[in-house]
Amino acid sequence: MMAPYLQIIALLEMSLTCAVVLMILLQKLSSTEIPLLIRVLIVLLLGNLFFWPLGMSLELPLSAYVRGVTGELSIVTMLLLWSSILPAAQKTPLGFKVPLAIIAIVFYPLALGLGMFDPYIWGYGSIGFLGAVMLFAILCGLAGWTKGVWLVSVAIIAWAAHWHESANLWDYLLDPFLAIWALFAIPSTIYQKRREKAQSGYLF
Length: 204
Prior knowledge:
By secondary structure, this protein is mainly α. The protein has helices at 4-29, 36-51, 62-70, 75-83, 94-111, 127-142, 146-160, 170-173, 176-200. It folds into two domains: 1-71, no CATH class; 82-204, no CATH class.
């Protein structure tokens, strides 16, 4: 049984995430840049609509129904989404998306029972796995992507504090939505880079 405070945290996170996703879609549909203050106010308003039960025929908040379909998102996914509404947000580099996609391609089949080895068990306090995750964060910093450092750092802190119901570090770092995003974002990023080079006169 999920503790009451964990339920509140989960609903609050999902409410904010739903609000941010709608805000991102609204910004993409808008022909002009929406000011930060307006974006924050819209997110807070939508977040409240998702967090509190609206009555009518709904017994639970809208976020509870969304969470019932999507499951609990990883800390990394939520932070990437939430930070995307900030002005001058750092773009996620290809050097993060490619390793993420490779890890997902290898991890999910093995975790779902394809083969005799299950890497999911590493998430239950494996020092080697924790060290590898910290090394990845350091590499992000050395590559100049400071956002990646705090994404991974906050995920590790949340795991150590048992912020979510899961006790597995994998669930704080990765989820299917993040994996799918990385897989689809890689071709888009490569195309965008080639387009920019072509426009500048350099194809390679």
